[in-house]
Amino acid sequence: MKTILLHGLGQNAHDWEKVTSLIPNMKVDCPNLFSAGENGFSYSEIMHSCEARFADEREPLRICGLSFGAVLALDYTIRHSSHVTSLVLIGCQYKVPSLLIDLQNIMFRCMPEKAFQNTGLSKSNTIELARSMRNLDFSEKLHEISCPVTIICGEKDRANKKAAKKLNTLLPQSELLIIPGVGHEVNKYAPEAIAAILNRE
């Protein structure tokens, strides 16, 4: 089994280093989702790139994603349920709230260009990508997920806690873990919690 780690918007593959250091014996693939020249800058183009990357994998996948990466993980599992043996979703929205996207883009517009230099996306590309996600809604397709699901949310992640609890009720095979004292980027600030979940499977 291979473990796939998908980072969030504003992150890159290096943000999983603390987690990967705690799971040294696992086969891990941690792609940079926004690598310049490899992907487009819309959600659908990045989803297509992920499908192409994993198309030749012969062993089953365990996918762990944070935020944007969790949305990709959820969508990929709906599309390829037979290929995914388990799912770990961190700070995930199954129905992307357009208001949250709009507020996020206002925040992005106020940030300097240099704040985006380590993410693989420019400021304008980040805004474009976020805008392309405004209408994502997987509510009617969640029943297609049959594998075990662990839903994680930081205690201080107010923007995603309600969605995490609702997703837990919509996926009967899921469990919800609230990580105390942590905000949205659980992979950076509580890597041991994620590693413990991955190590137990």
Percentage of β-strand residues: 15-25%
How would you classify the quaternary structure?
single chain
Q: What is the first-to-last residue Cα distance?
A: 11 Å
Q: Low-confidence parts, pLDDT < 50 over ≥5 residues? A: none
Give the neighbour order of strands across the main sheet.
2-1-3-4-5-6
Strand tally, please? 6
Average predicted confidence as pLDDT: 92
Shape: globular
Specify the structural class. Answer: alpha/beta
Question: Tell me about the biggest sheet?
Answer: 6 strands, parallel
Order of helices and strands: EHEHEHEHHEHEHH
SSE blueprint:
Layout: E1 2-6, H1 17-20, E2 27-29, H2 43-54, E3 61-66, H3 68-79, E4 84-90, H4 98-110, H5 123-131, E5 149-154, H6 158-170, E6 174-179, H7 186-189, H8 191-200
Describe, in short, the structure shown.
The protein is an alpha/beta fold and 201 residues long. It has eight helices and six strands, in the order E-H-E-H-E-H-E-H-H-E-H-E-H-H.
Commentary on this structure:
The radius of gyration is 16 Å and the shape is globular. 38% of the residues lie in helices and 16% in strands. Helix 4 (98-110) runs antiparallel to helix 5. It has a six-stranded parallel beta sheet, sandwiched between helices. It has eight helices and six strands. The chain has 201 residues and is an alpha/beta fold. The chain has helices spanning 17-20, 43-54, 68-79, 98-110, 123-131, 158-170, 186-189, 191-200, and strands spanning 2-6, 27-29, 61-66, 84-90, 149-154, 174-179.
